[in-house]
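User: Hello, can you help with two protein structures?

Assistant: Certainly.
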Amino acid sequence: MGKLAVGALRAVLLVVLVGTVLVQALMVWTLVSGKDPEDGSLPLTALRVITILGMVSVQVAVVCVGRLVTMVRRGTVFSPAAFRYVDGVIGAIVAAALVWFAVTIVNAPGQRDDPGVTVIMGGIGVAILGVALIVYVLRMLLAQAVARDAEASQLQAELAEVI
């Protein structure tokens, strides 16, 4: 991975992390202060709490991806230590899907005239779970690569003994 790509990815991750922290801070301030700038028909308090939890899942994913990028840069990504961060990304994606399903449930009563919106939102949640499954498949590929790397190291050590 090139230095430019790593630098650009780290910059994007930093912007996302700072942005999510700011959104969380604004949501917490709105909940604590009791000064609701909007008087919407949806239960805004529940949506704000859900947003705060959703931002936590994004932050977990950003930190895990950042750690994986560091491992790629150092050439240590094909090690058992990488699984912890990949599992963190998978967990964060599943948590984001659960948060999205919570938003769908909170939004559903307001969609009685047009239930298609709720169905579409549910479909988006299923798609998010699909992304978690894709990352899980990539995790299995990483596991195969780590096993092959360990096997190659063992064979190389045996060959060195013979020589």
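That covers the first. Now for the second protein you mentioned:
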Amino acid sequence: MSATPLNSFTQRATPHALALFRVVVGLLFASHGASSLFGVLGGAMGQGGTVPTGAWPGWYAAVIQLAGGLLVLFGLGTRAAALVSSGSMAYAYFSVHQGTALWPIQNGGEASAMFCWAFLLLFFTGPGAWALDRVFFGTTEPETAPAAEREPSAA
């Protein structure tokens, strides 16, 4: 069974699309941390200023956001950084937002939910193309073609 041109293109483009997704998600997440820690981009919670150093959980969340976002952005330890970042967003959702209302649209937790799931996806898929892990550690991601499209191995 031969692949259609669209399937062939999407299969070749998948690592690059995944890398672009990783870069955008990492940049957005790092921006949240930078705003809370350094008062840039509108400051903490859009109110200006910064989160007090060592304040639980805001300051620790901001450190995870900045460090995790930068690591994911550059593709360094992507899976570990994505797992920690996903967990921090799950914690944020359930500890800050869930008590207000059931649905993220009602409780203001859309960003926490989206980041949580985006990072969980990156944990399972890996960094895609353009990851610095490949430069420093020579790691390569396994082939991402669906099993049905792979050639059967000779037994």
